[in-house]
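User: Here's a structure from my thesis project, written as structure tokens. My advisor, Dr. K., wants to see whether a designed sequence matches the one we expressed. Can you design one independently, without my sequence as a hint?
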């Protein structure tokens, strides 16, 4: 029973870095616990201000991190890369 609680606790703490392609070809990066729900928020116009003005076309990639801090650092690093290197970051 202890192992299942550990796995559940790990899943609950997991954060994801994601990359979205927006109308006009621009990329938008963010972090979330539930990437699908966050993408739907962007698509419905209730996400970030940027994606309200530049609606998302598709989710390009996502990557799991053990906690919010690690995901936020990864987002910071990703946002400093040139566009051509952003998808490579997820491989």
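Assistant: Designed independently from the structure alone:
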């Amino acid at each position: 029973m202890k192992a299942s609680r550990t796995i559940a606790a790990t899943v609950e703490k997991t954060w994801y870095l994601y990359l979205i392609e927006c109308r006009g070809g621009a990329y938008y990066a963010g972090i979330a616990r539930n990437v699908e729900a966050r993408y739907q928020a962007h698509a419905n116009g209730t996400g970030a201000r940027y994606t309200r003005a530049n609606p998302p076309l598709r989710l390009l990639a996502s990557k799991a991190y053990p906690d919010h801090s690690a995901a936020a650092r990864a987002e910071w690093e990703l946002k400093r890369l040139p566009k051509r290197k952003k998808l490579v970051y997820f491989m």
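When you compare it with your expressed construct, this may help: The chain has a mean pLDDT of 91.
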